[in-house]
Amino acid sequence: MLKTFKLGGIHPEEIKLSSDQPIDVLPVPKKVFIPVSQNLGAPSKVLVKKGDIVKAGQLIAKGEAFISSNLHSSVSGTVMKVDKVIDTSGYKREAIVIDVDGDEWDNTIDRSEQIKRDCPLSAKEIIEKLKEMGIVGLGGATFPSHVKLMVPDGKKADLLIINGVECEPYLTSDHRVMMEKGEEIMIGTTILMKGLGVKKAIIGIENNKKDAITYLTDLADKFEGTKVQTLKVKYPQGGEKQLIKALTNREVPSGKLPIEVGCVVNNVGTALAVYEAVQKNKPLFERVVTVTGKSVNKPANFLVRVGTPISELIDQAGGLPQDTGKIISGGPMMGKALVSLDTPVVKGTSGILLMTDRESKRVVVQTCIRCGKCITVCPMGLEPYLLSNLIQHEELEDAEKEGIMDCMECGSCQYTCPSGRPLLDYIRVGKNRVGQMIRNRGKK
Known about the structure:
CATH superfamily of the largest domain: NADH-ubiquinone oxidoreductase 51kDa subunit
Mean pLDDT: 96
Radius of gyration: 21 Å
CATH topology of the largest domain: Rossmann fold
CATH architecture of the largest domain: 3-Layer(aba) Sandwich
Strand content: 15-25%
CATH class of the largest domain: Alpha Beta
Number of domains: 2
Shape: globular
Number of helices: 14
Helix content: 25-40%
Largest sheet: 6 strands, mixed
């Protein structure tokens, strides 16, 4: 019997249209817009100014706070300005705008195809290297990777988990990375093990990626302490707490991080970025992005420079379909609708989903029928209908007591609601307001 987490979960249609499409290198754009805040934490401090000449891989903004990350130019050219541009949230944020001239990389980056297996760095040096190269989690949260490896005093890690689940419908970037960069992922995994000081690593992959399971299982035999675990297909198994439960049966307490149960979780794309940073001295300035949708002419997986306007990815995939109703950054469950095609790709961009008019139209909201489906599918054991009502009635303290901050925003409740109620919408608003309330309380 395949492993999975027990509490809640759903089985949305997979629709992996681009799973067999090899990674294609997107042409370098004429101009990039690189947002200064591309990690979970404080924005980076800009180091360049208008008129500066930069190369691909050059440091252009420094992460000075404890939870922050360095930012590197993804192209060579001239800094046009530091201005505010619309990001994936729909708000204008500070960004570095660069006019592209050629494609000259920093000469310390090893661009050869030769795979380097041995890592001479110590654990401390690995952590420092990941900080220097601006590596963040590529599964969506963009938590700085070097911070994850800095185990707090009194805690101990005994297991590294590599997340190859990719449970969101449509998205296939992780799948293609596993198929085309398997050995690099395995080396990156061993580097993370060394940096963390653990002897065991498990790569969790859902059973709908049998080719990746077979390939990485064969590779894992050559790397001591690593193994691949096949998982039952179930959403949202890519969530850290759900993946840890599925693989180890350990439960991360409310409000706590995976290190509380001895685990650290990294995405397969992050493991690849770690390999490139440590073994090739390559900063994180490009990533694989899926461009997909039922009406998309050529669903694809592109290797894209950070800062590339999303319009260029859509053009390369055959253009914007006439029946497009909504454009999502990410997958249909946890992704967010974009307000502009000028929005740039960032480190956390895993996919661009073009939904049709028919898919994107919401059903008419009806009265809650008290069926309890939202409770049954919640992977965090919450009561979404109650949280939604509490937020609508401004009962923030009660929402906090009912665990609203534990919500992982997976959307399972809203997906399964027969009355079409916008449960997740209210909960997202509620989390922001309750979070602000908690922060204000801490200032007193």
